[in-house]
Amino acid sequence: MSTSTTIIMAIIISFAVSVILCPIVIPILKKMKFGQYIREVGPKSHQSKTGTPTMGGILFLVGILVGCAFYIPDYKRIIPVLFVTLGFGLIGFLDDYIKVVMKRNLGLTPAQKMLGQIVITAVFAFYMVNHSGLGTDVILPFSGGKEWHLGILYIPVLFVVVLGTVNGANFTDGLDGLAASVTT
């Protein structure tokens, strides 16, 4: 099976698992009262969102894990990316858990989130530099495959790209689901 076909199949499997789990998990989250608490200092229009189920990211993480599980034996290079995805998902889960169970609507502090993100990114960077066999070259997007040798700059660039992407998505998602439109 070609790499493109493998990727497409993993995406289809992940999507299907998420779609199947949504109608099962969301009512369970509602029943368990795992709903978002809205701060009273915000706009009054946001108060109607109180109780909206949170921890829905679990659906996507399970979907990704199941989709990737079929291909890990033949495509081991997916493991570091899966580690980063599940690691950041764990941070999101802990954040939501603190909001719901401990009734602290801010969840993890920004410093706690950033520390977790830095640790996960550092482990990923260490692996990429020392064990991936890929070196410190990156392929320039939209260049027809041209590579750029970053050398010692590889690690700071990797941190900026990973942390910038994750936090950019988090900030956008916090704005009434705009992450879906931006991602699309």
What's the layout of helices and strands?
Layout: H1 3-31, H2 57-69, H3 78-101, H4 110-130, E1 137-139, E2 147-149, H5 154-173, H6 178-183
Helix pairs in contact: 1-2, 2-3, 3-4, 4-5
Condensed summary:
The chain is mainly alpha-helical and 184 residues long. The protein contains 6 helices and 2 strands. The protein has helices at 3-31, 57-69, 78-101, 110-130, 154-173, 178-183, and strands at residues 137-139, 147-149.
Approximate helicity band: 55-70%
Biggest sheet architecture: 2 strands, antiparallel
Strand content: under 5%
Alpha carbon gyration radius: 19 Å
Order of helices and strands: HHHHEEHH
Per DSSP E runs of 2 or more residues, the count of β-strands stands at 2
In the sheet with the most strands, the strands line up as 1-2
Q: Which residues form runs of ≥5 with pLDDT under 50?
A: none
The total count of helices amounts to 6
The span between the termini is 27 Å
- Mean pLDDT equals 83
Throw out a few tags for this protein.
single chain; 184 residues; mainly alpha; two-stranded antiparallel ribbon; globular
Could you explain the architecture of this structure?
Helix content is 61%, strand content 3%. Helix 3 (78-101) runs antiparallel to helix 4 (110-130) and helix 4 packs antiparallel against helix 5 (154-173). It contains six helices and two strands. It has 184 residues and is mainly α.
